[in-house]
UniProtKB/TrEMBL annotation:
It is an enzyme of class 4 (lyase). This is Ferrochelatase. GO terms for biological process: heme biosynthetic process. Catalyzes the ferrous insertion into protoporphyrin IX. It catalyses: Fe-coproporphyrin III + 2 H(+) = coproporphyrin III + Fe(2+); heme b + 2 H(+) = protoporphyrin IX + Fe(2+).
Length: 321
């Protein structure tokens, strides 16, 4: 019978430094994952190692450099702060781990075991489930314990796309932002994209993004013309989920919209994809198309409502309901 629970807060992972070498190491591990890129390895690996990594690493390192914080990569800084906040709220050990890079899932699980945890609740910081993100965490954990003879009891938070605490934290954050900075003409909710093929083959991600967006619009009492959903961060040549974020913003600007608020509810922690791709690049796209103001509403990060919502999600599983 398990008596000493612990929490593993998991996120994607991020480079150790904003340099081409560190980005290459990170992308090589990330993009070699067959859950992420489903092209057969014999075709994909020569392309990845011969062309994509040499060309992409330098450019992406430059992008990371524009958002790098004194303490490191924003994704790691905010993930750590979320874990610190949870540790203060929950009466049990909380560790962070990344699917790619360090601390690895294996290191995180071992740290919890070393602290005496015989039950581990895994919380991937992906509110919407996708096989490309959440399932690959699950795969890796199963793979780690395949090589062990003893393992803790494990609990798994698969998704929390419409969790009332999470939706209410998002809604409060938007309302507070509007109260402090004023409200623009429309709200765009931008989620990380996914190849359309993945969804056609059964990935529930798109339906969960739509459910989150609708729940947030309802919580904010928005009418249909006051908000929209879009998908960002397309990678490669395939068709991804649509509408795409930047073309949507350009269309809106060309159609006469001057000011837009944008929030990325699928990213609990700010990172390259929000701070650089949206706050910097998408704002440029919007203004080049004739828009005046694109305001990025920050991720929930370590805001107290966010910590409280995640703690409420975890508490019943810790026997702390
Ligand atoms: C085929 C490629 C990719 C899929 C599928 C994909 C899905 C996916 N990713 C996230 C969350 C994040 N992605 C981030 C960065 C990032 N994503 C891809 C590719 C795919 N993502 C790449 C190549 C990169 C690195 C940057 C780049 O080279 O452009 C990040 C930020 C990491 C950071 O260090 O800040 C996050 C977070 C989700 C939620 C998702 C599917 C639902
Ligand atoms: Fe991604
Ligand atoms: Fe991107």
């Amino acid at each position: 019978m398990a008596a000493n629970p612990g929490v593993l807060v998991v996120n994607l992972g991020t480079p150790q430094a904003p340099t081409a070498a560190a980005v290459r190491t990170y992308l090589a591990e990330f993009l070699s994952d067959t859950r992420v890129v489903e092209i057969p390895a014999l075709l994909w690996r020569p392309l990845l190692f011969g062309l994509i990594l040499p060309l992409r690493s330098r450019r992406v390192a430059h992008n990371y450099a524009t958002i790098w914080m004194d303490e490191g990569s924003p994704l790691a800084v905010y993930t750590q702060r979320i874990a610190d906040g949870l540790r203060q709220q929950l009466r049990c050990p909380v560790e962070t781990a990344y699917r790619y890079g360090t601390p690895s899932l294996e290191q995180g699980l071992d740290r919890l075991s070393a602290l005496g945890c015989d039950e581990i609740i895994v919380l991937p910081l992906y509110p919407q489930f996708s096989a490309t993100t959440s399932a690959t965490v699950f795969d890796r954990i199963a793979q780690i314990y395949r090589q062990r003879r003893a393992m803790p009891a494990l609990q798994w938070i698969a998704d929390y796309a419409t969790d009332p605490g999470y939706i209410s934290a998002l809604a409060q954050s938007v309302q507070q932002h509007w109260a402090e900075h004023g409200r623009n003409e429309r709200l765009l909710m931008s989620f990380h994209g996914l190849p359309q093929r993945n969804v056609s083959l059964g990935d529930p991600y798109q339906a969960q993004c739509e459910a989150t967006a609708r729940a947030l619009a309802d919580a904010l009492e928005l009418s249909p013309d006051e908000w929209a959903l879009s998908y960002q961060s397309r990678f490669g040549k395939q068709v991804w989920l649509q509408p795409y974020t930047e073309p949507t913003l350009a269309e809106w600007a060309e159609g006469g919209l001057r000011s837009v608020d944008i929030i990325c509810p699928g990213f609990p922690a700010d990172c390259l994809e929000t701070l650089e791709e949206i706050r910097i690049q998408a704002a440029e796209t919007f203004c080049e198309a004739g828009g005046e103001t694109l305001t990025y509403i920050p991720a929930l990060n370590d805001n107290p409502q966010h910590i409280q919502a995640l703690a409420a999600l975890l508490s019943p599983r810790l026997g702390q309901a």
